[in-house]
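S1.2 Input.
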Amino acid sequence: MWIDLTAVPDRLEQVCLLCESASLALKSWGYRPGDMMTVRAPDGACFRGRLMVDRQSVLIREFLDRRVEPLYPRCLYQAIPNRERMRWIIEKAVELGVTTIQPVSSEKSYDKSNQKPKQDKSTTWNKVVCRAARQCRRGVIPSLKPVDSIEKIVHTLPEHVAAFALDLPGVGVVPLTHVEKQEHTHGYHLFVGPEGGWSAAEQALFDSNGIQRINLGMRVLRTETAAVAVLAVLETYLTS
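S1.3 Output.
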């Protein structure tokens, strides 16, 4: 949810009123008076402003001359790794512009269902998303979906958005650099597997549903390294 202004600022150091809907957004972000935040004017221009004591206005401090949020969805489907790796992946994915993060249950992924309730990381993950979004000046907080099975996710993907599954080199796998740019200029869905990789059944699932299996080269990367590396490459393709 954007934090919207009621009017377009015409100069810096100007105090601008927030829209009525901003109160809910401020609560979601956890902003307090004096905090710097990214706001959007009615014409779509983005600014950095400092929240005033009344929580209904901001002091405009900086004009952002670039697009803060992508026009199209950038979704990461990450097979859950063990330990604290998922937390790190979430943080970096937010910084790299992902709009949706979906933890995935796959054949070789870490089984989160074995945790005791007090060990559930979902609440912590949401906090990581918000903190990362604030740190890198995002305009909206990316969506963090609940864990779901890879079969259900694959069968509900929209047809008009390019989808990729990061895999090891092999039959049916192409280098990411060989993918035509126009295939993902309207956003993308990216699947990143667990430490043990995708199973043969999951590879077949990707192939039969038009999800292109890609690789970054001959090296075998850790799942958290692979996720960040391919997101960075896709970000470069989309903004170059």
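S1.4 Remarks. The radius of gyration is 20 Å.
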